[in-house]
From TrEMBL:
<dbReference type="Pfam" id="PF06338">
    <property type="entry name" value="ComK"/>
</dbReference>
<protein>
    <recommendedName>
        <fullName>Competence transcription factor</fullName>
    </recommendedName>
</protein>
<dbReference type="InterPro" id="IPR010461">
    <property type="entry name" value="ComK"/>
</dbReference>
Length: 186
């Protein structure tokens, strides 16, 4: 396991868990497809910095998700703009033991005999968390619903070239302090 001082979420990032260093500072375990890293930042700081890295903010991502899904608590978020990575918290982000999950990496999940939930990723790594099947399934469903809504909204990009038959020029009308369109003289 490699130690890092900071981290940015990317497509191979599957989950971010809390851990405490030897001094009692809240840090993270970042689970990727092929490795696990100890990062000297809290899970929430990593998510916030990652949103900023890709040109947004966690608050903006939450606001956007709530605009798409309705007013819900513990909203999933889209991080990365063009990367379109959909993440959700296991519980309120105010709790230090909140785990962040990437929805696209979750293969399945099941309730264990001790009442915990085993979350299995596509690479067969697994994490046992304190959650009910119903609550976790609801969070995964919301993240996937957000993904579907956002892809419908942004997936049908139409590109076209418009060549006008007549040439126009936009000029400022100084007398009225606004702009107007005028036919270009040949």
């Amino acid at each position: 396991m490699q130690e890092m001082y900071d981290y940015v979420i990317h497509k191979e990032t599957m989950g971010i868990l809390n851990r405490y260093d030897e001094y009692g500072n809240l840090c993270s375990l970042v689970v990727e497809e092929k490795d696990i890293y100890e990062v000297n930042e809290s899970p929430l700081v990593i998510v916030k910095k990652s949103a900023l890295f890709y040109g947004s903010s966690l608050e903006g991502a939450i606001t956007g998700a709530r605009a798409a899904l309705g007013k819900i608590s513990m909203s999933p978020v889209m991080i990365g703009g063009i990367e379109r990575m959909y993440w959700f918290p296991s519980k309120s982000t105010e709790h230090e033991d909140c785990i962040w999950f990437s929805a696209e990496h979750i293969k399945d999940y099941r309730t264990l005999d001790d009442g915990t939930l085993e979350v299995r990723f596509h690479n067969d790594y697994s994490i046992n968390i304190a959650s009910t099947y119903y609550r976790f399934d609801q969070k995964v469903g919301r993240a996937n619903k957000l993904k579907n809504i956002m892809e419908r909204r942004t997936g049908s990009k139409r590109m076209f070239l418009y060549i006008p038959e007549k040439q126009f020029i936009i000029i400022k009308d100084g007398g009225r302090n606004h702009y107007k369109i005028q036919k270009r003289r040949k």
